[in-house]
Design goal:
Four copies of one chain form a homotetramer. With 216 residues, chain A is an alpha/beta fold. In chain A, the strands form two sheets. In chain A, strands 4-3-5-6 form a four-stranded parallel beta sheet, with helices on one face. In chain A, strands 1-2 form a two-stranded antiparallel sheet. Chain A has three domains: 47 residues, Orthogonal Bundle (Helicase, Ruva Protein, domain 3), CATH 1.10.8.420; 29 residues, no CATH class; 119 residues, Dna Topoisomerase Vi A Subunit, Chain: A, domain 2 (3-Layer(aba) Sandwich), CATH 3.40.1360.10. In chain A, 45% of the residues lie in helices and 12% in strands. The first copy, chain A, has ten helices and six strands, in the order H-H-H-E-E-H-H-E-H-E-H-H-E-H-E-H. In chain A, a hairpin with a 6-residue loop joins strand 1 and strand 2. The longest helix of chain A has 17 residues. In chain A, helix 1 packs across helix 2. Chains in contact: A-B, A-D, B-C, C-D. Chains A and D meet through helix 1, helix 2, helix 3 and strand 2 of A and helix 1, helix 2, helix 3 and strand 2 of D.
Amino acid sequence: MYPPSIQKLINIFSKFPTVGPRTAARFVFYLMKLSKEETDEISQSISTIREKIKLCSFCFKPFEPARNASHSDAGGGEGELCEICKNPVRDKTLLCVIEKETDLIPIEKTQKYHGRYFILGGTVSRLRKEDMEKLRIKELQERIQGSPIEEIIIAVNPTTEGEATALYLERVLKPLNLPAGRQVIKITRLGRGLPVGGELEYADEETLGSAFESRK
Amino acid sequence: MYPPSIQKLINIFSKFPTVGPRTAARFVFYLMKLSKEETDEISQSISTIREKIKLCSFCFKPFEPARNASHSDAGGGEGELCEICKNPVRDKTLLCVIEKETDLIPIEKTQKYHGRYFILGGTVSRLRKEDMEKLRIKELQERIQGSPIEEIIIAVNPTTEGEATALYLERVLKPLNLPAGRQVIKITRLGRGLPVGGELEYADEETLGSAFESRK
Amino acid sequence: MYPPSIQKLINIFSKFPTVGPRTAARFVFYLMKLSKEETDEISQSISTIREKIKLCSFCFKPFEPARNASHSDAGGGEGELCEICKNPVRDKTLLCVIEKETDLIPIEKTQKYHGRYFILGGTVSRLRKEDMEKLRIKELQERIQGSPIEEIIIAVNPTTEGEATALYLERVLKPLNLPAGRQVIKITRLGRGLPVGGELEYADEETLGSAFESRK
Amino acid sequence: MYPPSIQKLINIFSKFPTVGPRTAARFVFYLMKLSKEETDEISQSISTIREKIKLCSFCFKPFEPARNASHSDAGGGEGELCEICKNPVRDKTLLCVIEKETDLIPIEKTQKYHGRYFILGGTVSRLRKEDMEKLRIKELQERIQGSPIEEIIIAVNPTTEGEATALYLERVLKPLNLPAGRQVIKITRLGRGLPVGGELEYADEETLGSAFESRK
């Protein structure tokens, strides 16, 4: 129904997260109303992202290295750390494992966590091999062996998928060989309880049971 | 539009919780299709409730006194206790204050709480005098002074109204004069955290902050 | 979990249309807070409905016969007509077949229909015999043969169930033998089109096609 | 919280229709996972749209002119017609005025309309001057005066905004001076009625009234 060049862009936008073909069509018609300067700015911003943004060599958080830093590190761009991992105030004995980049923002906003992060890159459901291979398990094991970590907080969603992922992480992290002298690492999970605005009457048993246990 | 006798019953049902005029009309037409035996059973069940169900003299939970019991207690029907308050296994040093009858069911289902309850009878919003007077504050104070209670768990919804109610309860319960020798009563609230099925990315700061603090 | 007399009433309310066990429990606790006068009024209103409300002998609409009328008609209470069927201004050549009592109200509110109604008493899905037997088909055929009807408007919901019911009605009404001299009856259905507040972009093909055909 | 180059792209995507900052962030992280070839393809497709897609000189529908055509028409690229306007089978006496590009698709799918279109470019609410100036009113008047149009179908959404737009169109189109000999133009609107899947009981009066009037 649409001309091929429009249909092609609709197909591209349909692959964006949360976007269906109808919304993709609206994106295309929106773009067609922009000036050349505006569409050029979009293309430019997309390629800037590719050039300027690097993934932190410790936690895999996307970040924009400072100009000076990138000069001095020129030979070893791969070894750069993001502003959180580089921050000397952050507690290096804590490591919070999260599924994806956007999970970091709400945790930082709580101002209750002052350790470092590790972005796992996905979740597993039903422990399928192909899902597991997408996770940065080997990298996580290397970080744990190479840093003075004492507690790993598995901060995944309390959903079925998140549970499967947490179980899998516990299974691969517990038997980890630590360098001599390193103390046993504690593996914890986020507390369950009633969320702000929730209603007791509609809470499931596990959530409400945890809310009783963590009362204070 | 409806005949007066139908309209009258629609008005009555419209006062039932969650029922609007359209649903009330559907109730009336449903009743009209029942046999005389069936509608008589409804009326009968409603008056049975009035006759058989008593409110527990400690916690205000509605319950049906056992026949024998009600005979032996004939002289003091008002003093009867529900099956939870009467249960010798229940921990009498714990008191869980809940807003309404239906909040008790999900808590019992968790099997994590083994103390007694107290049904407050409502919530307050903005601490208005008329709201406060509907709550069983005086009765709650009497229970606390007359029982070996060591911890009061304020188990209200973590909503704005629930928060206002909890603050009000803390204000009226903290200065309570206890009999000589009684230890100071601890007032606690249910733990906040991520509910089962929740998503970290959409959690509010307070909920997520509590989830970090109560990690385990 | 609830005492037997409460559980029994919860079960009764759970059978009311749109009511689940949780809402039924709220109804019971609501009733328990009413005075004896108030619960007596409910029981009284339910039995009044049984006594005062009759079904119209033509259209099956529930109505409350006027006192005088019911005296004079004492011998033949079954033959009484509702205020719509009795109204001499109503066009007796039109018959609007509706599924249930509550469908009549919105049609009357449009003030665009001035004929009589016939309440079918249900819908059929997949033309199952047990569903068809619940409909007042025989009575509908009698009304058509006994009245000067020229158009039958099948005013069922434009849903899959409504469509099946309309098809079934057309099948049983078309071959109907009419008294000699009676003209052929027209069978119509409500027009399809865009509802107020609808959006063209999300309309299905049939709805939008009808909207084009009935443009004016 | 995000690096400036990421934040800039989030801001750009936040201006896309239906996209908020959270979804915009997900778009950016999605883009960051693509290969250079894939992001280049997106930028390329966006600029292709700018180059290849033209707006039809009659109806303003975006279309991709055929290569040959664009050669032969080289001198008058502005005068090119889309495949619908060029189609000799289309009825030139009918003109369907729609708000936006995406409204054309569902109408074509009905296969009930065989005339031409005119994309108005927006709606007016409350007849504010700045809204009205965005609409292609002058162009619409020119099309009407220059074509053998006999009926204008105002196919806007049956919402408050759509109603205001339709009223405004009627006001500006009715007094239009037509060339001598041209017959009076009929202005129509899409029919109202029950949509497929709708329920009679919840229909508003206007929708249901129209459904009765357009019964068939």
